[in-house]
Amino acid sequence: MGNSDNIHVGDRISVFGFPGIGGDTITFTSGNVSGFTSEDQVGDRAWIKTDATIAGGNSGGLAADDNAEIIGVPTIAASGAEGDITDCRVVQDTNGDGQLTKEDTCIPIGGFINGVRPINLAMPLIKAAQSGQAYTSPYSPNGITSGSTGNEQMSAITWYTLDAQGNLDQPVTSYPSGTKVIVAAFDFSGFTNGEAWREVWTHNGEQAYEGTAAWDQGESGSYGTYLGNPDPNAPDVMPDGNYHVDIFIDNGGGPLTSGDVTIGGGGGVAPPPANSGVTLFGTVTDADTGQPVANAMVFVLNPGVSYDQWSNANYPDSDVYTSTSTDSNGNYQMPYTVARDQSYTIIASASGYYDRYGDNLTWTNQDPDQYQLDIQLTK
Hints:
- This protein is mainly beta and about 375 residues long.
- The protein folds into three domains: about 5-80 and about 115-130, Beta Barrel (Thrombin, subunit H), CATH 2.40.10.10; about 155-270, Immunoglobulins (Immunoglobulin-like), CATH 2.60.40.10; about 280-375, Sandwich (Immunoglobulin-like), CATH 2.60.40.1120.
- The chain has helices at about 125-130, 305-310, and strands at about 10-15, 25-40, 45-50, 60-65, 70-75, 85-90, 105-110, 115-120, 155, 160, 170-175, 180-190, 195-205, 205-215, 220-230, 240-250, 255-265, 270, 280-285, 295-300, 320-325, 330-335, 345-350, 355-360, 370, 375.
- The strands form six sheets. A six-stranded antiparallel barrel has the order 1-2-3-8-5-4.
- The longest helix has 9 residues, at about 125-130.
- It starts with 11 loop residues before the first strand and ends with a strand.
- Residues about 75-90, about 105-115 and about 270-275 have low confidence and may be disordered.
């Protein structure tokens, strides 16, 4: 046994397991520790991120440091940005019986699948087992800590594709054959972190996935949930057919929002929204060199929230109206339109650069539906 609190970003990590894609023999991959993510109940080291490839099916495997000490366990549910928890869903007919059932192998969904639970989180359980004592988990099921307020609302669902970085890309009305992941995006308000929410997916009328988790996206904003495999290198594709999703909160009522989409038939680009808001796009570059800045974040804050208010409050997600990141060429496009004759704050942020922002930016009927806003960052 090792001490997972002693590892640091850049340390080498070795992973051993028996993923489904590796057959019956052990599979070994290696890489480096690339970071950590937090969870409210667990703390700052709820997950160890690594660039080592970890395929679905490695749950219960072993992650070791260069001293051959166990420092973590690859887990069937990996962790995404901002602590989002992903899971493993039956979306492929892996046993060839023509049905999607619990007998099929599940596939990790969303976030990053290269996540490792630190071994220190398991030590109380291990010590209890060694001493023959009963063990009671200090964590509530699925992280759920509160109930519904009755004020929750969700907008109609818009379907999206993902870009190579796993960010929302283009709104669509259908997906072409060969699609690996479908994304249901919506606006929300009135939520409380820790309350239970549930999503139910069907494929051609048969249940494909149902899961309950603790809400962790803040009071209001935009969110997208996935079905399929977001890994661009994954060989599996989703079967053609009709897909439906219902999203509930745990209050016994009907779904807050629902959506239908089809895979197969070519795919289609969604028409612009009827309210004809303004879609912001552009390029983020280095002010000194003119070179594009990849993986920069671009934020649009809720109307009435200034940059100083947001930063002084420690950057709460609930103040963000919409956000995206730049691709390898520094290009971005906001997933949601901004309303005309409404003031917003726009912020660009990247590692190694000062934030660049503008308060009280407004677009009117004189502005085009597609508005180019290029941003330069300084070090």
